[in-house]
Design goal:
mainly alpha, 3 domains, five-stranded mixed β-sheet, two-stranded antiparallel sheet, 22 helices, elongated, disordered N terminus, disordered C terminus
């Protein structure tokens, strides 16, 4: 019966014999409005089915006679004029965007639930990160954040009790993992990092499926897991800042595609709380908002972005939040000499290209396809400008800081995976399988290498293991210690909390910046406020032990020995005595009764700055 706003079906159910509406599309099998969102409900029948939907933008309706299913429902046969590919219904266009008409051919196909899809990606991620259960430390960052998390579990807070020039969220995430599985090892945070990577791959799968179909979604998700693993163990296996940041950044792009501008902005704000460079994801979000040709999406995205950032600043304190997140990165992010920067860039970029050569080739194909499509009218599935903008923003984020660490390149994985999947969607099945096998083989090789590889060069177990044992032997579980240098792994291995908020001292107090070919102490970069906080913490709860790593030249600590800083040296000489030398490092212990005569102790350059324990020293005389 004809109804208002609809065209009635013909008696023969011919080419135009289907329901039409002005604002909603209908399912050819059920004559019911299609379900919007990331998935659709399957029509009633013996088993769930998935629609095989045509990729053409417009075509005549299905031709031919209808068929009758076992349940008695009349279904339309797919049109032979449209080339159909396995794909879920496209994502509903957001407010301000234009929906693109598509063919309606329906072919039943088996499908997996979203939970099972995520489970498969999670199993693959865990299998490629099995080294997380056997290796104690992959890089010093894990030890640094792990030590911060122990301070948080002890009742401390980020910035007030444990400081770093990083965003505040990751120590709390580590602490949450420790609260569940214990802080004896880093297995808990690494499991959480695997979950974050699997969630990232799942969101990439959803985005790829919405753009190019089901198969392209799987290709994008698998490439995401492979590319995030195909690197050196210290970068591809560690529970790094980037892995925890990626779910929020990819989620922002997915939400922006749906027109959820406030939620997309909030997702970017959450990523900034994990690492500051997550803010570059505002670029692809803004590119999607630009299509609406109205200011409302920009306003909503800006408000959403500000909400979590402002809330965190209020809870932490605006002054401290700004000091450590914005103003405290100046010395660390200062550019090195031009020649050194070019050398670092060439080394790391060359390594990344070598380990991800198939993805780089697919990027070239995606760019060529984009140029060939430049004259064609844009469609919802072919437009990938936001992905290229996302990739450019990721490159800028990698360059910030001028260090080009390997784990920085993880920010490129989602856009590269999606662009590569789009290029493969236009190629044959043989090419897709070959690309997946090549990237999977590289990732598997890196994963196996992580099981047998030695720690990174910046971890010196031959020095730190003995020093950690000495710290445990001369202190109790509740005692705090001070490690002068750039070795957070000593706190982690010794299972002792730092006496001050600074887990490392060289970059914060001496101006020695790590990862430079020619490091040097620059007192001008040593913030006076940092020294005030350091000495206040030192006096508030004096450390039981002080370990000076400068005599052993551990990680450039020889550039800033404690004897150069009188405010600290006076405290060490007056309240501490020299216990022993451990792997070239000097270990000092606090006096039970401070020796007044020790204040005048004059040490030679090659001797400890405090007198040996148990030896009385006259004022103004040095010990031989």
């Amino acid at each position: 019966m004809p109804t208002s706003g609809r065209r009635s079906t013909s008696a023969s159910n011919g080419p135009r014999g289907r329901w039409r509406t002005r604002s909603r599309r209908t399912d050819a099998a059920t004559n019911r409005p299609e379900t919007s969102g990331w998935w659709r409900r399957a029509p009633p029948g013996p088993a769930p089915t998935k629609a095989r939907r045509s990729r053409c933008s417009s075509a005549p309706p299905p031709r031919g006679k209808p068929s009758r299913s076992s349940s008695g429902r009349v279904t339309a046969r797919p049109s032979r004029t449209c080339r159909s590919t396995l794909a879920d219904p496209p994502l509903t266009a957001g407010r301000g965007s234009t929906a693109v008409p598509r063919c309606v051919g329906v072919i039943a196909a088996p499908t997996l639930s979203l939970v099972r899809r995520f489970g498969l990606l999670l199993l693959l991620t865990v299998a490629l990160h099995a080294a997380a259960f056997t290796v104690e430390l992959f890089n010093p960052d894990e030890a640094f954040v792990g030590t911060q998390a122990r301070v948080v579990l002890d009742g401390g807070s980020v910035y007030d009790d444990t400081a770093d020039r990083k965003a505040p969220a990751l120590p709390y995430l580590y602490a949450a993992a420790f609260a569940v599985v214990g802080d004896d090892s880093l297995v808990g945070p690494r499991l959480l990092a695997m979950l974050a990577l699997a969630l990232t791959a799942f969101l990439v799968f959803l985005e790829g499926r919405a753009r190019w179909g089901e198969r392209a979604g799987w290709v994008a998700g698998l490439l995401c897991v492979f590319a995030a693993t195909a690197y050196l163990p210290g970068d591809g296996q560690a529970a790094s800042f980037e892995l925890f940041m990626l779910p929020a950044t990819v989620g922002a792009v997915v939400l922006a595609r749906h027109g959820r501008w406030a939620s997309a902005g909030a997702a970017v704000g959450l990523s900034v709380l994990v690492k500051q460079t997550g803010g570059v994801t505002l670029l692809p979000v803004a590119s999607r908002a630009w299509r609406a040709r109205q200011p409302r999406p920009f306003v909503l995205a800006a408000l959403g972005f500000a909400a979590p950032v402002v809330l965190a600043a209020v809870l932490i304190g605006p002054g401290e939040y700004t000091r450590w997140n914005v103003l405290g990165t100046g010395g660390f992010a200062a550019p090195p000499p031009f020649g050194e920067a070019v050398q670092l860039l060439g080394e790391q970029v060359g390594l990344w290209i070598g380990l991800n050569a198939p993805l780089v080739l697919l990027l070239a194909l995606a760019w060529r396809d984009r140029r060939h499509r430049s004259g064609a009218p844009p469609t919802e599935s072919s437009g990938d400008n936001d992905l290229w903008i996302w990739l450019v923003g990721g490159i800028v984020a990698v360059a910030l800081g001028w260090r080009f660490y390997g784990h920085y390149f993880l920010q490129l994985v989602p856009p590269v995976s999606l662009l590569a999947a789009g290029a493969l969607a236009r190629r044959s099945t043989r090419v897709r399988i070959g690309a997946l096998l090549a990237t999977g083989a590289t990732a598997t090789g890196c994963a196996l290498g992580a099981l047998f590889a030695h720690p990174a060069d910046i971890i010196r177990p031959e020095l730190t293991d003995g020093a950690a044992r000495a710290i445990r032997a001369h202190s109790g579980a509740d005692d705090r210690v001070l490690v002068w240098g750039l070795a957070p792994e000593l706190y982690w291995e010794a299972d002792r909390l730092p006496a001050t908020r600074f887990v490392t001292t060289l970059s914060f107090l001496a101006g020695v910046q790590p990862s430079r070919d020619e490091p040097r102490a620059e007192p001008a970069r040593a913030n006076r406020k940092n020294w005030d906080d350091f000495l206040a913490d030192f006096d508030a709860h004096q450390p039981r032990l002080v370990l000076d790593t400068a005599p052993a030249a551990l990680k450039d600590a020889e550039l800033a020995p404690m004897s150069k800083y009188s405010s600290l040296a006076i405290r060490i000489v007056g309240d501490y005595c020299f216990v022993r030398e451990v792997r070239g490092m000097h270990l000092y212990e606090r006096h039970t009764r401070p020796d007044a005569d020790a204040v005048g102790y004059l040490a030679r350059p090659d001797t400890p700055i405090a007198p040996p324990c148990g030896q009385t020293v006259g004022r103004g005389r040095s010990t031989p």
